[in-house]
Amino acid sequence: MTVLVTGATGFVGGAVVRGLVARGVAVRAMVRDPAAAPTGVDVAVADLGDAGSLARALTGVRAVVHAAALLGEFGRPAEFFAVNVAGTDRLVQEAIAAGVARFVFIGSPSALMAPDGGDQVGIDETVPYPARFLNSYCETKAVAEQLVLAADTPEFTTCSLRPRAVWGPGDRHGPIVQLLAKLRAGRLPDLSGGRDVRASLCYIDHLVDAVARALTAEKVGGRAYFIADAEPVSVWSTLDAVAARFSLSGPSVTVPAPVLDAALATIETLWRIPALARRRTPPLSRYAVALVTRSATYDISRASRELGYQPAVPFATGLDNFHHWVDQVGGLDRLLEDA
Asked: What would the CATH number be for the domain defined by 2-328?
């Protein structure tokens, strides 16, 4: 069985490629830039916006892992819909036409985040999508997931995996790296408000294992699965521990809620200016704030029951592995040059 992996130059897609190859699976890595393609595997140069290139990439493929997506806290809604929704729909249609038998979508719990939402503790997959979404990324991941699951048939099995805050060795741009960058620059205040904010994270090896299982598991058609580490973490104490591991100071300055709301409103207004939005990443967003101020923990019993998913790497071990990898690539300063 040949598996096409989209987004193969990214952190998640690249790890999936390596993980499947290590398991003896024939992989075709889909990339837009051949110069950045992984080595040792079949490579297809294609774009989600080009049906013809997708059709060629899917020739002889029996399964797809769709990890490519437009990420971001800000951006034009049309761009998010073009990539995350229209691009996913185009890939699904071409996969059906090519006779693909299974389609595994890398979704996100962000698809359940509303602008005025609060904590989501121990939730399972029965929780509905919100009526309104926190940002365009959240909305388009929800819409794309729904179209993937709706495409399920006896001949074309589809499912969605929902990892949150994927982290671990190889991560150069994800949430942990972004938080490290803010800690190093002294730009991460304590926003906890004195609350114990809890969060489910997903170590990269756990997601790769879930993908491999989803490619062969029975009775997964049309279903979504939360994929997370075995235990949630306390966000702000974990940030202190991560900071200490990299010889950084943890968050200390507190920001009152009214000041934070005013700052976010100002930033949102300024970043509606296209010239500014194209040149610079906003220092803060409601999405980023929500990730560290709302508890978000997930019941993974469906994944355990139906995929045989059992996360085995404790957070402390994963952090050791990540720290060792950062040393291997030249240290934190070198890593954050590209963050």
From this structure: 3.40.50.720
